[in-house]
Structures are given as structure tokens and as C-alpha cells.
Amino acid sequence: MVAGHSLGEFSALVVNKALSFEDGLKLVYARSMAMQKACEAEPSTMAAILGLDDKTVENVLSSIDDVVVPANYNSPGQLVISGSIKGIDIACEKLKEAGARRALPLKVGGAFHSPLMEPARIELAEAIKNTPFEKPVCPVYQNVNAKAVSDPDEIRSNLIKQLTSPVRWTQIVENMIADGVKSFVEVGPGNVLQGLVKKVNREVLTESAG
What we know:
Strand order of the largest sheet: 3-4-2-5
Order of helices and strands: EHHEHEEHEHEEHHEHE
Strand content: 15-25%
Structural class: alpha/beta
Distance between the termini: 18 Å
Number of strands: 9
């Protein structure tokens, strides 16, 4: 089974042969161009919230009128939020008052995985719809629902939703472990995902193939 965090989901789909390498590259390019346009159209940002449980973060965000939503469920106690600049500022203050150990604004160009990426989602949807998807050799646990998916049409549909939906990485790791995974191999440079996996479950093995 495979999974990828945000952009990494495209790599995962190449690994399990749902996408060809060439089509994967084309979609990554289309995605980056669409997101750049959305960022330029409406300034927005993200912040990392450390030391609060997911439910508390969700409750605080739901009380804010500006656009601000959970974006990356990275691991227990680490949730990245995304939204308007004003919304993120308000959220950081409220979350610190609620007990967050840290609320760190991130140096990013936009509110990825939020409703503010809707123009990019619409643009990328066309590229995804025109790309052939094959039956994968193993399931992919997708960002939008954290579930194992093998149907090409369902993979395509979930990939279109990804830009405006949160990355449910914590839930993906939990579900993969529940389905029998005892060892995770991170493909690529660095060990960020290995660290996140260990924060979800210290018992599993992790290694790098970068």
C-alpha cells in the first residue's frame, strides 16, 4: 500500500502505477501553476499549531468568522491551519489562549488545502479529468478520506478534491497500521514523514529509500 502527503500523493500514484511518470509530472506542473494563480488572486497563509488536540483546534476555528480551516493533520498535537491572513492572525491568538504550546505562522504563499484554493481546484480538475488513470497495483490511502482506494475513478475524484480539503495524514497512518502495516518506507530526501509516523505510533518501523 502507498500514501503521499499533499503533493506527495501524486508520487504515490506513480509508484502504484495508477499514473504514468509523464502524466504525474504534467499534473504536478498544472497543479503548481493553478495554485500560484490562486495565491496571487487572494493573499493568504498558513500556521502550525503545536500542543493542542485536533478537536480543540477545530472548535476554535469554527468560532472565527474569517476563512480559517484545518489543512494538515500531521500527527497528534501538530495541526497546520490555512486561511486568510486576518483569519490566521485571529486563530493564532485564540489557539494560544486555548493552550497551544506554539502557533507558528508559516512562510508560504497561500492558504493551501482550504476553500481559498477553489479557483485552482477548478482549473486542476480539467487536467485531472483529461488524464488516464489505470487500475493500481496496490491501494493508495488518499488525503481527503484517509481510506484505501483502488478504483481509478474514485482516485481521480479524490485527487480533484484534494486542493480544498485537509490532508488527513494522522488518520492515514492510523488506518494503514490498522490494516496491517508494521514498517513504513519514506521515498525521497529527508525524514519528515518518518518523524510524523513515529508520533502517531512509536512501535512501527520506519526507514528511508531516498
